[in-house]
Design a protein that fits this description.
Layout lengths: L1 E10 L2 E11 L4 E5 L6 H8 L7 E6 L2 E2 L5 H8 L2 E4 L11 H7 L8 H14 L15 H13 L5 E5 L7 H18 L2 E6 L2 H7 L2 E6 L2 E7 H4 L6 H6 L14 E8 L7 H8 L5 E10 L2 E10 L4 H10 L3 E6 L4
Parallel strand pairs: 3-8, 3-9, 6-7, 7-8
Antiparallel strand pairs: 1-2, 1-4, 4-5, 9-10, 11-13, 11-14, 12-13
Helix pairs in contact: 3-4, 3-5, 4-5, 5-6
Keywords: Amino-acid transport, ATP-binding, Cell membrane, Membrane, Nucleotide-binding, Translocase, Transport
Protein name: ATP-binding cassette domain-containing protein
Pfam family, one: ABC_tran
Length: 327
């Protein structure tokens, strides 16, 4: 488990991370999401104390890192793997040599280091490229080497700081597949730092939204989706503003679906039961944390809007009124 308690970090009096508290359960894939400058990378570096917070405590696997001296901290960091956006690989070493680098401080034999490096390269799908030069690899393959290196010391936590932002969509998805497999097969806690909501949607069990160094929302995605007014939900399922041309006497609503509600014939039943023309203005449906979920925006005639909204809420659906009745 990772626990941050009221952590803050300032640079020149300006807060980069401001009074952040987070609890990340063991074995979860957790996303820290926010725009550039929100403080995400600083927060990632605080988790393994590459940056010491000005205030607050950091605890990983029941060890309070902020209470450790430098020697103890170096040992504790061996349990926290780090994957970087820019790969940070050494061109002077082979692929296998880069992975072995992480093991050289452990003092094992050369044969043991080689065997462990090969094991990790096999895990990330590069077992056949151990003797290759780094320059011979694609960006996605280099990122896999970085992941293998991070896993070599048998960490319990894997931090990924914008590790897919420089990759094309197809390569990004293959790397995210690898993270999911690592989480499932090795039981690692994975912390993904990203500005991309697609990364959160495809990979994370839980997430926190960071703005100007502060956590403005956090939780398990299946719970967040069901939370009225959720900022994360609106970014996970962006529908934009109400389009022009909607009649002034019409009511516009957003319906948020999650779990078993996502495949119900809700709209067809509304039109039938209320004898009304219901127009779909937009829809986004995704699979999030293993659950089908999404949002649909409807235009409903004003004279039946109150009854339609009551009907939908009685079904346990989350309704937000954007225009018209109860707006």
């Amino acid at each position: 488990m990772i626990a941050l308690d009221r952590v803050s970090k300032h640079y020149g009096g300006v807060p980069a991370v401001d009074d952040v508290s987070l609890t990340i359960p063991t074995g979860e894939v957790f996303g820290i999401v926010g725009q550039s400058g929100a403080g995400k990378s600083t927060l990632a570096r605080i988790v393994n104390l590459l940056e010491r917070p000005d205030h607050g405590t950091v605890t990983v696997d029941d060890v309070e890192l902020t209470a450790l001296g430098e020697t103890e901290l170096r040992a504790a960091r061996r349990r926290i793997g780090m994957v970087f956006q820019r790969f940070n690989l050494l061109s002077s070493r082979t692929v296998r040599g880069n992975v072995e680098l992480a093991l050289e401080l452990d003092g094992g034999s050369r044969a043991a280091r080689r065997d462990r490096a090969q094991e990790m390269l096999d895990l990330v799908g590069l077992g056949h490229r151990g003797d290759a030069s780094i320059h011979e690899l694609s960006g996605g393959q280099q990122q896999r080497v970085g992941i293998a290196r991070a896993l070599a010391t048998r960490p319990s936590v894997l931090l990924s700081d914008e590790a897919t932002s420089a990759l094309d969509p197809e390569t990004t998805e293959s790397i995210l597949d690898l993270y999911r497999r690592i989480n499932e097969e090795l039981g690692l806690t994975v912390l993904l730092i990203t500005h991309e909501m697609d990364v959160v949607k495809s990979s994370c069990h839980s997430a926190a939204l960071l703005e100007q160094g502060r956590v403005v929302e956090q939780g398990r995605l299946v719970d967040v989706i069901r939370t009225p007014g959720s900022r994360l939900t609106s970014q996970l399922f962006p529908l934009g503003p109400v389009p022009d041309g909607v009649p002034a006497d019409a009511t516009v609503i957003d319906i948020t679906f999650a779990g078993g509600t996502a495949d119900r014939p809700v709209i067809a039943r509304l039109a039938r039961d209320h004898d009304a023309d219901v127009s779909i203005l937009g829809a986004v449906v995704e699979r999030i944390a293993g659950t089908q979920a999404g949002r649909t925006r409807l235009e409903v005639p004003g004279h039946v809007a109150a009854a339609v909204i009551a009907d939908l809420r009685a079904q346990g659906l989350l309704i937000e009124v954007l225009q018209g009745v109860a707006a």
